[in-house]
Write a structure and sequence with these properties.
single chain; about 325 residues; alpha/beta
């Protein structure tokens, strides 16, 4: 698939979210999209998935595509199995094959007992399993993942890792956004063949692949940079990984149900900070890079059971420790 001069804005006079995007999606490639919150990453993925249409430019060669959105529409009037069967039919499977695939993927994700549960009654984690399963059950040629790992338990993240590498090995193309490069470095065993960054409505390529799927080493780091070694070999001290955690940090104070652990797979690799005074039971204090704070807040507020956020405030000065492991810091007054 190719994008040439693609732009997207909402409304006749709305600001351009993306401008002049040129992008090739070769077969058998794993493509990572990076960028700050609100930079246009999700808009780009929606264009790739065919959910949105470009305001300018052209997209050609669209393959059979499946998409995991950043927010799963859990209010739909389906059971988990009914939704997967319906989406399997949309993806081109026959009724029997779709129903069989729905059952198999729910079992693989450890959610088989929820097959007859309404989507609106599923926990956040189980809803995410259904969202991922619908994209995998028909072996798409293009798989588009917008923070698909967020909210999954460890076993389910590993299953998705395996599905991603399997799709690429079978000649499919996978495009993904994820806010936690350290988690991907530790778990996703396939190497990202290309890394693209969205900033200021423009797409830049840090490393590309040619038509045959080989890395061209584009970008300042060339073939020796962290990306070309692959996420599985990325060093948490590498500048490419550190850059994901650079910048001002914020402190989030949240309280969960008594005895409830923090949800797994929180975005931004937040660090626990000891309380400097007594806090109510179940209260934690987390610091995270400001660019990841929105995603972290969303994960806490949409967890089931949900966490109550007491405070969000800047941390000053920014910690000087390694990525994802800040030292305790002095808080500035609330902004």
């Amino acid at each position: 698939m190719r994008l040439r001069g693609v732009g997207r804005r909402y409304g006749l006079r709305g600001p351009w979210v993306l401008r002049d995007v040129d992008l090739d999606l070769p077969r058998g490639a794993l493509l990572r999209v990076e960028g700050a919150n609100g930079s246009g990453k999700s808009t780009l993925l929606r264009l790739l998935a065919g959910i949105d249409t470009p305001t300018a430019g052209r997209i050609t060669g669209r393959p059979r595509t499946a998409y995991v959105p950043e927010r799963f529409p859990a209010a739909l009037p389906f059971t988990a199995a009914g939704y997967l069967t319906h989406l399997g039919r949309v993806h081109g499977l026959g009724r029997a094959a779709a129903a069989r695939g729905a059952e198999e993927w729910l079992e693989r994700f450890g959610a088989g007992r929820h097959a007859r549960t309404s989507l609106s009654e599923l926990s956040k984690g189980t809803s995410q399993k259904v969202a991922v399963a619908q994209a995998l059950l028909a072996d798409p040629e293009l798989l588009v993942l917008d923070e698909a790992w967020t909210g999954l338990d460890r076993d389910s993240r590993t299953l998705l890792d395996d599905a991603v590498t399997g799709r690429v090995a079978a000649g499919g193309t996978v495009v993904f956004v994820d806010h936690d490069p350290r988690r991907l470095a530790a778990s996703l065993r396939g190497a990202a063949d290309a890394v693209h960054r969205v900033a200021g409505g423009r797409l830049t390529t840090e490393r590309a692949v040619d038509a045959a799927g080989a890395s061209t080493g584009a970008g300042p780091g060339g073939p020796a940079d962290a990306g070309s070694r692959g996420l599985a070999e990325a060093d948490p001290r590498d500048p490419r990984v550190l850059a994901e955690f650079a910048g001002p940090r914020v402190l989030i104070e949240a309280q969960g149900p008594a005895g409830a652990p923090l949800p797994e797979g929180l975005p931004g690799a937040p660090a626990l900070v000891p309380a400097d005074s007594p806090v109510p039971p179940g209260t934690v204090r987390l610091t995270v890079v400001a660019a990841h704070s929105d995603a972290l807040l969303r994960a806490l507020l949409t967890a089931r059971p949900a966490w109550h956020v007491h405070a969000v405030r800047p941390v000053d000065p920014p910690p000087a420790s390694s990525a994802g492991s800040p030292s305790p810091t002095t808080e500035s007054p609330p902004a």
